[in-house]
Amino acid sequence: MPDETTRFLKEEASRLMDENRDLREELTALRESVRALSALYYLSQEIKPETDVLQLLTDILESALVVLKASDGSLMLVDEETGELVFAVARGEIADELIGFRIPPGQGIVGWVVAHREPQIVRDVRLDPRFFDRVDELFGFNTRSMVAVPLQLDDGRVLGVIEVLNKVSDREFTQDDLDLLLIVAELSATAMRRAERATALHERMVSAMQSAKKTGPLPPSPS
Known about the structure:
- Helix content is 54%, strand content 17%.
- It has helices at residues 2-45, 53-68, 95-98, 108-116, 134-139, 175-215; strands at 70-78, 85-91, 102-103, 120-122, 146-152, 158-167.
- Strands 3-2-1-6-5-4 form a six-stranded antiparallel sheet, with helices on both faces.
């Protein structure tokens, strides 16, 4: 009987230690996600006409990867003339090769997300008939799973899509991951809209000042 009690206590202690470790890991991940989302929020509030849009897109993607605990991902923008999705920013194994690569309109899971304006979780892309395997074939990559969310403005326009691939440790993406990426996308759309407005306002101010210089000072009012 004492041996059984001792064994039970050891097993219980081991179980509690495992649970404690898992809780610490979850708490660390939560803190990192909160920091990343907070940084993105403050970034969206500090947009100026001189804001580097490419750096803005890079910060958005990096926030997404931190929040979802993934190493590979990209942010693609819609080419308004052709409808193609263009890799604007990428992170991961083949990031450098992807920049500028184009996906035909409506092709792939990301094309579907943009066309339908709906986010998607795909836990095994090889089982999804929408998967566009051309990128993997060209660049020797292995996409296993993904989460993709449209970048949609408040006026209904879809600017592009954020995709995050292959969660670390081969874990599956969850609904919580999708919810977090939706927050990132919402903050991202706000930041991009502010950047667009700030640039437009700056251009209007410059144009107004140039017009004022051309017309010269106002004539003095008659006394």
